[in-house]
Specification:
The chain is of the alpha/beta class and 138 residues long. The chain contains 6 helices and 4 strands.
Amino acid sequence: MKKIGIIACANTTKILDCPLSPCLRDFYDRKGEFARYKNMELELAGVISCQGCLGGLAPETVLSKANSLVHYGADVIHLTYCMKVLCPYVLKYMKILEKVYPKIDIILGTHEPHDSIEKTRDSISQFLKQKMGQNIIP
């Protein structure tokens, strides 16, 4: 059995109030990046949001989020699709997590894309701008 942990984007979960429904739907339906587990038994170890965009500190502080998931048994950590599309640190996160947790699979993505990456990025960016009243995503 694989135990899956998910790290989600704080902008989408805390600002846009995303309940991660597409991620969880595809987890249970084995779609998107979860298709790799088609014939496997899975358990959700946990879901946690990143700490948000903290400038230069963001890449290192993701470790505390991963530590929690590993503590609860995750042997695979998925970084959500919204992180793949929006996060300026996602590649750094992956490198750090892979270095610190060489026995944990680090996967970029969760649910199937709703649209092209560009359209998704633009759509989420517009929602964030409306919600926050400012441009927080370049």
